[in-house]
Write a structure and sequence with these properties.
About 5% of the residues have low confidence. It is built from two helices and eight strands; from the N terminus they run αββββββββα. A hairpin with a 4-residue loop joins strand 5 and strand 6. The chain has 130 residues and is an alpha+beta fold. It is globular and about 60 Å long.
Length: 130
């Protein structure tokens, strides 16, 4: 009987933990304190949660499974950053200039690969136009 209670407690603890996290890092001069996480469902943006900055970083804990496009919106500066989720942790840094996102440095494998693929496609497109 004790084993059943122990097993139930362990399973409940795993169920309460986040499925994956999204971590965003910004320089100290970025003024936004709030960030809103969205999932994208066709033409609909669905608000997941809102977080406040702690030491120029935001950590969102996504509670379930999700594979697809997501975005984070910073209402104070009207900046939006899109990324993909493969039900794994997402981590990126923002390069800020004049309180606007200048560049996104993806630190997780899936988004880094996506970013490089998009850069390659843009270069090919530019080359083909010449």
């Amino acid at each position: 009987m004790k084993k059943i209670y122990t097993l139930s407690a362990v399973l409940a603890a795993f169920a309460l933990q986040a499925q994956f996290t999204i971590t965003i890092q910004t320089p100290a001069d970025f003024k936004d304190k709030d960030a809103i996480l969205y999932t994208l469902n066709g033409s609909k943006d669905i608000i997941v949660t809102k977080e406040q900055s702690k030491n120029n970083a935001w950590t969102f804990k996504y509670p379930g499974n999700y594979m697809g496009m997501m975005k984070v919106y910073f209402p104070g500066s009207n900046n939006t950053v899109s990324f993909i989720s493969e039900n794994k942790n997402v981590n990126f840094k923002l390069d800020i200039q004049n309180n606007k996102v200048k560049d996104v440095i993806y630190l997780d494998e899936a988004n880094n690969l996506m970013s490089k693929q998009q850069e390659g496609s843009q270069k090919k497109s530019l080359f083909c136009r010449l």
